[in-house]
Amino acid sequence: MESAYFSIGKYIATLVDWLNVNYPVPFELLSAAMEGCVKFLEMLLITPHASIIMIVFSLAAWKIAGGKVAGITFLGLLFCFAMNLWKATMLTTALVMVSTAAALLVAIPLGIWSATNKTVDNITRPIMDLMQTLPPWVYLIPAVILFSLGRAPAVIATAVFAIPPALRLTSLGIKGVPSDQLEVGKAFGASHSQVIWKIQIPAALPSIMAGVNQCIMMSLSMVVLAGLIGAGGLGGEVVRGLTRMMIGVGVRSGLAIVILAIIFDRVTQGMVTMSRR
Protein backbone atom coordinates (compact mmCIF):
# COMPACT_ATOMS: atom_id res chain seq x y z
CA MET A 1 0.00 0.00 0.00
CA GLU A 2 2.86 2.35 0.83
CA SER A 3 4.61 1.78 -2.50
CA ALA A 4 1.35 2.40 -4.37
CA TYR A 5 0.94 5.70 -2.53
CA PHE A 6 4.41 6.89 -3.46
CA SER A 7 4.03 5.72 -7.07
CA ILE A 8 0.85 7.80 -7.45
CA GLY A 9 2.63 10.86 -6.13
CA LYS A 10 5.55 10.19 -8.46
CA TYR A 11 3.27 9.94 -11.49
CA ILE A 12 1.46 13.16 -10.62
CA ALA A 13 4.77 14.99 -10.10
CA THR A 14 6.00 13.66 -13.43
CA LEU A 15 2.83 14.85 -15.18
CA VAL A 16 3.12 18.33 -13.68
CA ASP A 17 6.80 18.57 -14.64
CA TRP A 18 5.96 17.41 -18.16
CA LEU A 19 3.28 20.08 -18.51
CA ASN A 20 5.66 22.77 -17.25
CA VAL A 21 8.37 21.76 -19.73
CA ASN A 22 6.28 21.05 -22.84
CA TYR A 23 3.30 23.40 -22.54
CA PRO A 24 4.41 26.53 -20.68
CA VAL A 25 2.72 29.00 -23.06
CA PRO A 26 -0.95 28.16 -22.24
CA PHE A 27 -0.24 28.47 -18.53
CA GLU A 28 1.58 31.76 -19.04
CA LEU A 29 -1.28 33.16 -21.13
CA LEU A 30 -3.89 32.06 -18.59
CA SER A 31 -1.81 33.50 -15.77
CA ALA A 32 -1.42 36.82 -17.59
CA ALA A 33 -5.17 36.96 -18.34
CA MET A 34 -6.15 36.33 -14.72
CA GLU A 35 -3.57 38.80 -13.42
CA GLY A 36 -4.74 41.45 -15.89
CA CYS A 37 -8.41 41.01 -14.96
CA VAL A 38 -7.67 41.33 -11.25
CA LYS A 39 -5.47 44.40 -11.73
CA PHE A 40 -8.06 46.10 -13.94
CA LEU A 41 -10.92 45.47 -11.52
CA GLU A 42 -8.77 46.48 -8.56
CA MET A 43 -7.92 49.75 -10.32
CA LEU A 44 -11.63 50.44 -10.90
CA LEU A 45 -12.37 49.90 -7.22
CA ILE A 46 -9.40 51.80 -5.76
CA THR A 47 -9.11 54.78 -8.12
CA PRO A 48 -12.35 56.56 -7.02
CA HIS A 49 -12.58 57.87 -3.48
CA ALA A 50 -13.73 55.27 -0.96
CA SER A 51 -16.94 57.19 -0.24
CA ILE A 52 -17.99 56.91 -3.89
CA ILE A 53 -17.51 53.13 -3.90
CA MET A 54 -19.42 52.87 -0.60
CA ILE A 55 -22.35 54.79 -2.05
CA VAL A 56 -22.36 52.81 -5.31
CA PHE A 57 -22.23 49.46 -3.52
CA SER A 58 -24.90 50.54 -1.03
CA LEU A 59 -27.23 51.69 -3.80
CA ALA A 60 -26.73 48.41 -5.64
CA ALA A 61 -27.47 46.49 -2.43
CA TRP A 62 -30.59 48.61 -1.84
CA LYS A 63 -31.81 47.93 -5.38
CA ILE A 64 -31.22 44.19 -5.10
CA ALA A 65 -31.88 43.32 -1.46
CA GLY A 66 -33.52 46.31 0.21
CA GLY A 67 -32.67 49.11 2.62
CA LYS A 68 -31.51 46.90 5.51
CA VAL A 69 -28.84 45.23 3.40
CA ALA A 70 -27.85 48.62 1.97
CA GLY A 71 -27.26 49.90 5.51
CA ILE A 72 -25.20 46.81 6.38
CA THR A 73 -23.17 47.29 3.22
CA PHE A 74 -22.41 50.95 3.92
CA LEU A 75 -21.52 50.42 7.58
CA GLY A 76 -19.45 47.35 6.77
CA LEU A 77 -17.42 49.12 4.11
CA LEU A 78 -17.06 52.12 6.41
CA PHE A 79 -15.58 49.82 9.05
CA CYS A 80 -13.07 48.44 6.52
CA PHE A 81 -12.08 51.99 5.59
CA ALA A 82 -11.76 53.09 9.23
CA MET A 83 -9.54 50.07 10.00
CA ASN A 84 -7.15 51.08 7.18
CA LEU A 85 -8.06 47.94 5.22
CA TRP A 86 -9.70 49.59 2.22
CA LYS A 87 -7.13 48.54 -0.40
CA ALA A 88 -6.97 45.01 0.98
CA THR A 89 -10.78 44.79 0.99
CA MET A 90 -11.06 46.01 -2.60
CA LEU A 91 -8.35 43.58 -3.74
CA THR A 92 -10.19 40.72 -2.06
CA THR A 93 -13.41 41.88 -3.74
CA ALA A 94 -11.66 41.90 -7.12
CA LEU A 95 -10.23 38.43 -6.53
CA VAL A 96 -13.64 37.07 -5.56
CA MET A 97 -15.36 38.65 -8.57
CA VAL A 98 -12.84 37.35 -11.09
CA SER A 99 -12.71 33.89 -9.51
CA THR A 100 -16.51 33.65 -9.36
CA ALA A 101 -16.88 34.76 -12.98
CA ALA A 102 -14.32 32.17 -14.12
CA ALA A 103 -16.02 29.44 -12.08
CA LEU A 104 -19.51 30.28 -13.38
CA LEU A 105 -18.31 30.33 -17.00
CA VAL A 106 -17.49 26.65 -16.52
CA ALA A 107 -20.08 25.56 -13.95
CA ILE A 108 -23.33 26.86 -15.48
CA PRO A 109 -22.87 25.55 -19.06
CA LEU A 110 -21.53 22.24 -17.75
CA GLY A 111 -24.42 22.02 -15.27
CA ILE A 112 -26.95 22.56 -18.07
CA TRP A 113 -25.18 19.96 -20.21
CA SER A 114 -25.08 17.38 -17.42
CA ALA A 115 -28.78 17.93 -16.69
CA THR A 116 -29.72 17.24 -20.31
CA ASN A 117 -27.18 14.49 -21.05
CA LYS A 118 -27.07 11.32 -18.95
CA THR A 119 -23.54 10.40 -20.02
CA VAL A 120 -22.13 13.80 -19.03
CA ASP A 121 -24.02 13.58 -15.74
CA ASN A 122 -22.51 10.17 -14.97
CA ILE A 123 -19.03 11.56 -15.66
CA THR A 124 -19.34 14.84 -13.77
CA ARG A 125 -21.05 13.46 -10.65
CA PRO A 126 -18.09 11.46 -9.27
CA ILE A 127 -15.68 14.25 -10.25
CA MET A 128 -17.77 16.79 -8.33
CA ASP A 129 -17.93 14.38 -5.36
CA LEU A 130 -14.14 14.16 -5.37
CA MET A 131 -13.67 17.93 -5.73
CA GLN A 132 -16.02 18.67 -2.82
CA THR A 133 -14.27 16.23 -0.49
CA LEU A 134 -10.73 17.43 -1.19
CA PRO A 135 -9.33 19.87 1.39
CA PRO A 136 -8.98 23.41 -0.01
CA TRP A 137 -5.21 23.36 0.59
CA VAL A 138 -4.87 20.66 -2.07
CA TYR A 139 -5.95 23.09 -4.80
CA LEU A 140 -3.13 25.49 -3.96
CA ILE A 141 -0.33 22.97 -4.56
CA PRO A 142 -0.74 22.38 -8.34
CA ALA A 143 -1.71 26.03 -8.84
CA VAL A 144 1.59 27.19 -7.33
CA ILE A 145 3.61 24.62 -9.28
CA LEU A 146 2.01 25.53 -12.61
CA PHE A 147 1.55 29.28 -12.14
CA SER A 148 4.12 30.22 -9.47
CA LEU A 149 3.14 32.59 -6.64
CA GLY A 150 0.84 35.60 -6.80
CA ARG A 151 -2.72 36.46 -7.73
CA ALA A 152 -3.06 34.31 -10.86
CA PRO A 153 -2.68 30.92 -9.09
CA ALA A 154 -4.98 32.19 -6.33
CA VAL A 155 -7.71 33.04 -8.85
CA ILE A 156 -7.35 29.76 -10.73
CA ALA A 157 -7.30 27.59 -7.60
CA THR A 158 -10.28 29.52 -6.21
CA ALA A 159 -12.27 29.16 -9.44
CA VAL A 160 -11.68 25.40 -9.56
CA PHE A 161 -12.62 25.09 -5.88
CA ALA A 162 -15.87 27.03 -6.40
CA ILE A 163 -17.14 25.12 -9.45
CA PRO A 164 -18.88 22.11 -7.78
CA PRO A 165 -21.73 23.87 -5.89
CA ALA A 166 -22.70 26.04 -8.85
CA LEU A 167 -22.59 23.08 -11.22
CA ARG A 168 -24.64 20.85 -8.93
CA LEU A 169 -27.35 23.43 -8.21
CA THR A 170 -27.61 24.35 -11.90
CA SER A 171 -28.03 20.71 -12.86
CA LEU A 172 -30.50 20.15 -10.02
CA GLY A 173 -32.57 23.16 -11.05
CA ILE A 174 -32.74 22.06 -14.68
CA LYS A 175 -33.71 18.52 -13.71
CA GLY A 176 -36.38 19.84 -11.35
CA VAL A 177 -38.39 21.60 -14.04
CA PRO A 178 -41.88 19.97 -14.15
CA SER A 179 -42.34 17.61 -17.08
CA ASP A 180 -45.69 19.18 -18.02
CA GLN A 181 -43.93 22.47 -18.82
CA LEU A 182 -41.57 20.63 -21.15
CA GLU A 183 -44.45 18.80 -22.81
CA VAL A 184 -46.31 22.06 -23.41
CA GLY A 185 -43.22 23.57 -25.04
CA LYS A 186 -42.73 20.54 -27.27
CA ALA A 187 -46.44 20.51 -28.16
CA PHE A 188 -46.09 24.07 -29.47
CA GLY A 189 -43.19 23.00 -31.68
CA ALA A 190 -40.26 24.27 -29.58
CA SER A 191 -36.89 22.85 -30.53
CA HIS A 192 -34.52 21.27 -28.00
CA SER A 193 -32.51 24.46 -27.63
CA GLN A 194 -35.67 26.57 -27.26
CA VAL A 195 -36.93 24.26 -24.51
CA ILE A 196 -33.64 24.72 -22.66
CA TRP A 197 -33.33 28.51 -23.06
CA LYS A 198 -37.00 29.54 -22.84
CA ILE A 199 -38.45 26.98 -20.42
CA GLN A 200 -35.86 25.10 -18.37
CA ILE A 201 -33.38 27.90 -17.59
CA PRO A 202 -36.03 30.49 -16.58
CA ALA A 203 -37.77 27.90 -14.39
CA ALA A 204 -34.47 26.82 -12.83
CA LEU A 205 -33.22 30.38 -12.28
CA PRO A 206 -33.75 30.41 -8.46
CA SER A 207 -31.66 27.24 -8.13
CA ILE A 208 -29.00 28.64 -10.46
CA MET A 209 -28.82 31.87 -8.43
CA ALA A 210 -28.50 29.82 -5.24
CA GLY A 211 -25.53 28.15 -6.94
CA VAL A 212 -24.09 31.58 -7.66
CA ASN A 213 -24.46 32.44 -3.97
CA GLN A 214 -22.60 29.30 -2.91
CA CYS A 215 -19.95 29.89 -5.57
CA ILE A 216 -19.26 33.37 -4.19
CA MET A 217 -19.04 32.08 -0.61
CA MET A 218 -16.63 29.31 -1.63
CA SER A 219 -14.55 31.81 -3.60
CA LEU A 220 -14.29 34.13 -0.62
CA SER A 221 -13.18 31.34 1.72
CA MET A 222 -10.55 30.14 -0.75
CA VAL A 223 -9.25 33.63 -1.54
CA VAL A 224 -8.52 34.10 2.15
CA LEU A 225 -6.48 30.88 2.20
CA ALA A 226 -4.74 32.00 -0.99
CA GLY A 227 -3.07 34.73 1.06
CA LEU A 228 -0.53 32.02 1.86
CA ILE A 229 0.67 31.98 -1.76
CA GLY A 230 1.01 35.73 -2.18
CA ALA A 231 -2.50 36.69 -3.31
CA GLY A 232 -2.59 39.64 -0.93
CA GLY A 233 -5.81 41.30 0.16
CA LEU A 234 -7.46 40.45 3.47
CA GLY A 235 -6.04 36.94 3.34
CA GLY A 236 -2.56 38.41 3.14
CA GLU A 237 -3.32 40.58 6.18
CA VAL A 238 -4.46 37.52 8.13
CA VAL A 239 -1.27 35.67 7.18
CA ARG A 240 0.80 38.70 8.20
CA GLY A 241 -0.90 38.86 11.57
CA LEU A 242 -0.44 35.12 12.08
CA THR A 243 3.23 34.90 11.10
CA ARG A 244 4.23 38.00 13.09
CA MET A 245 1.91 37.28 16.04
CA MET A 246 0.15 40.62 15.54
CA ILE A 247 -3.20 39.97 17.21
CA GLY A 248 -4.72 43.33 16.28
CA VAL A 249 -3.99 42.89 12.57
CA GLY A 250 -5.39 39.38 12.58
CA VAL A 251 -8.59 40.31 14.42
CA ARG A 252 -9.45 43.37 12.35
CA SER A 253 -8.70 41.50 9.10
CA GLY A 254 -10.88 38.61 10.25
CA LEU A 255 -13.72 41.00 11.04
CA ALA A 256 -13.37 42.60 7.59
CA ILE A 257 -13.60 39.16 5.99
CA VAL A 258 -16.76 38.38 7.98
CA ILE A 259 -18.29 41.71 6.93
CA LEU A 260 -17.46 41.06 3.28
CA ALA A 261 -18.97 37.57 3.50
CA ILE A 262 -22.18 38.96 5.02
CA ILE A 263 -22.48 41.60 2.29
CA PHE A 264 -21.92 39.08 -0.52
CA ASP A 265 -24.33 36.60 1.05
CA ARG A 266 -27.17 39.08 1.63
CA VAL A 267 -26.87 40.63 -1.82
CA THR A 268 -26.82 37.28 -3.63
CA GLN A 269 -29.77 36.09 -1.52
CA GLY A 270 -31.56 39.18 -2.73
CA MET A 271 -30.73 38.12 -6.29
CA VAL A 272 -32.26 34.70 -5.58
CA THR A 273 -35.44 36.37 -4.31
CA MET A 274 -35.60 38.57 -7.40
CA SER A 275 -35.22 35.55 -9.68
CA ARG A 276 -38.13 33.83 -7.92
CA ARG A 277 -40.34 36.88 -8.42
From TrEMBL:
Membrane topology: Multi-pass membrane protein
A GO MF label: amine transmembrane transporter activity
Subcellular location as annotated: Cell membrane
Gene3D superfamilies: MetI-like
Pfam families to which the protein is assigned, alphabetical: BPD_transp_1
Domain ABC transmembrane type-1 as annotated: residue spans: 89-268
Chief location of this protein within or outside the cell: membrane
PANTHER family in the record: GLYCINE BETAINE/PROLINE BETAINE TRANSPORT SYSTEM PERMEASE PROTEIN PROW, GLYCINE BETAINE_PROLINE BETAINE TRANSPORT SYSTEM PERMEASE PROTEIN PROW
Protein name per Swiss-Prot or TrEMBL: Glycine betaine/proline transport system permease protein
Gene source species: Desulfocicer vacuolatum DSM 3385
